[in-house]
Amino acid sequence: MSAAVHLKDVGHSFGSGMLFSHLDGTLEPRHVYALVGPSGSGKSTLLSIIAGWVTPTEGTVEREDCGRVHWVQQNPHGVARRMAIDHVALPFVARGETRTAAARHARELLAMFGLEERAERQFRELSGGEAQRLMLARGVASQAGLLLVDEPTAQLDLHTAAGVNEHLHALSVAGAIVVVATHDPNTRDACTDVIDLRDYQ
Ligand SMILES: Nc1ncnc2c1ncn2[C@@H]1O[C@H](COP(=O)(O)OP(=O)(O)O)[C@@H](O)[C@H]1O
Ligand SMILES: [Mg+2]
Predict the structure, then answer these.
(1) Which of 12, 14, 151, 195 to mutate to test the pocket of ligand 1 (most atoms within 8 A of CB)?
(2) CA 28, CA 37: separation in Å to the nearest integer?
(3) Cα 201 to ligand 1 centre (Å)
(4) Does ligand 1 lie within 6 Å of residue 44's CB atom?
(5) Which pLDDT band, with edges at 50, 70 and 90, does 181 fall under?
(6) What CATH number should be reported for the domain holding residue 147?
(7) Model confidence over 17-41: pLDDT tens digits?
(8) Phi and psi dihedrals of 46, rounded to 5?
(9) How far apart are CA 196 and CA 133, in angstroms?
(10) Domains held by the chain: number
């Protein structure tokens, strides 16, 4: 059976008026869904609902064989003096791979996110865009079934954001269901599908 998230007539309110309602759809692996809408429209809330951390006030969410959830935050967090490659190799080591195998897999992922030249740099030496791409690579390395990314370009200038958007498609290579909350039209265009919260207000 393949993984899926089924959203059925989903709506949510924190008390004062609905953020969104009557949201239906199925999320599947190998798609990268852009979740768009203005600030305050409920993007982060819907990500939490998809993750299963928040119960929607209306409708149901069924997660079918999704496995673990990995959340990539808006601000990249890493270990300042640790090398970039270690951040991506660690999830492989944690799953029992040898150092050599983990490093090889990490290097493959770094290349997919345009970071092959940065592998041996300390995290603190990376630019904002590089650090964000590293967090995306680590998200793929986690092999979670659900990869939720909240506003990956919100803190970046246009040029740096473009570098992140260029690599978004790589998020789905390990077969995860990927949802990217964003209000950046270029990020939206880099995704394979769009869920626009304005259609559900
Ligand atoms: N835990 C909460 N309790 C009450 N209100 C909340 C909570 N989380 C978010 N909100 C409110 O819900 C609205 C949508 O928030 P959010 O999902 O963060 O939107 P977005 O990510 O699109 O900017 C905002 O008005 C926010 O203040
Ligand atoms: Mg948000």
Answers:
(1) 14
(2) 21
(3) 14
(4) yes
(5) very high
(6) 3.40.50.300
(7) 899 999 999 999 999 999 999 999 9
(8) -65, -35
(9) 24
(10) 1
